[in-house]
Design a protein that fits this description.
binds zinc ion; FCD domain-containing protein; Arc Repressor Mutant, subunit A; elongated; Four Helix Bundle (Hemerythrin (Met), subunit A); mainly alpha; plasmid; DNA-binding transcription factor activity; about 260 residues; transcription; 11 helices
Length: about 260
């Protein structure tokens, strides 16, 4: 008996530290099952999930639980609820806008500086420019040229807001031709940060004009190198452009908005 007690006590001592078991909410379990279902059956955008009633029967859950699960997936951007007679939960690919909004939300609670953005931009924009060499269509070139014309007009009108939006659009057009989805997303995200979130505290006309002219010259040089499909020249031109852009940001005393949560 004594040996048994000792043995029992020894076994109890070897148990791992106590852990409170978590009760997973029913709607979260249903949402997870639906995610697995979508992945397992290889369902894609525009495919439909069964209507609420069928899901209620399948999972043995109330309408409220199914709706909560579907709402969670809708908020995640995985589903969209179509209304009407043939309505119901429809699968959608998460959009770039949704992901970028979530990334902005994440960075709202970080100490983010525009120098952090340029540290990446200086490398990623060069990678992107190299990636798109030989992939741009005539339509891309036409839009890039039109973009430069709009940029020149914005500068003549001293319309800084328009100039800033158009400057970034040039880089978004380049990103369209990128065949690396991660690089594409990262560059678009950084473009949004530069376009929407940087405050330029210096209001000197001379410095703003110099920055605008510098961007236009850099874009013209880039288009010419891209036309020639000269990878080294493209890479060097984008490297210089990003370096100059960062220097100008310093001169314009750029800083970030404190609110990265609000949508534009
Ligand atoms: Zn640019």
């Amino acid at each position: 008996m004594e040996a048994e007690d000792a043995h029992g006590a020894q076994q109890a001592a070897e148990l791992p530290p106590g852990r409170r078991m978590r009760r997973i909410k029913l709607s979260d379990q249903v949402a997870e099952e639906l995610r697995r279902w979508i992945a397992r059956d290889n369902l894609g955008p525009k495919d439909r999930l069964p209507p609420e009633k069928v899901l209620m029967q399948h999972f043995g859950c109330s309408k409220g639980t199914i709706r909560e699960a579907l709402k969670a997936l809708e908020v995640e951007g995985l589903l969209v609820m179509q209304s009407g007679a043939n309505g119901g939960p429809e699968i959608q690919a998460t959009t770039t806008e949704t992901v970028i909004q979530q990334m902005r939300q994440y960075f709202h609670f970080q100490q983010l500086d525009f120098e952090d953005v340029y540290e990446l931009r200086k490398k990623l924009e060069v990678m992107l420019a190299e990636n798109v060499v030989g992939k741009l269509t005539e339509d891309h070139f036409r839009r890039l040229q039109a973009n430069i014309d709009t940029c020149i007009q914005a500068m003549r009108d001293d319309d800084r807001e328009a100039g800033r939006v158009v400057e970034v659009q040039f880089h978004d057009i380049l990103a369209e031709a990128c065949d690396n989805p991660i690089l594409d997303l990262m560059c678009r995200f950084l473009n949004v940060m530069v376009r929407d979130l940087v405050l330029r505290r210096t209001d000197s006309l001379r410095e703003h004009s110099a920055f605008g002219q510098q961007n236009i010259d850099a874009h013209i040089e880039l288009i010419e190198a891209l036309r020639r499909e000269d990878r080294d020249a493209v890479s060097a031109a984008m490297g210089r452009h990003m370096h100059c852009a960062e220097c100008s940001m310093k001169e314009l005393d750029a800083t970030f908005h404190l609110d990265l949560l609000s949508r534009q």
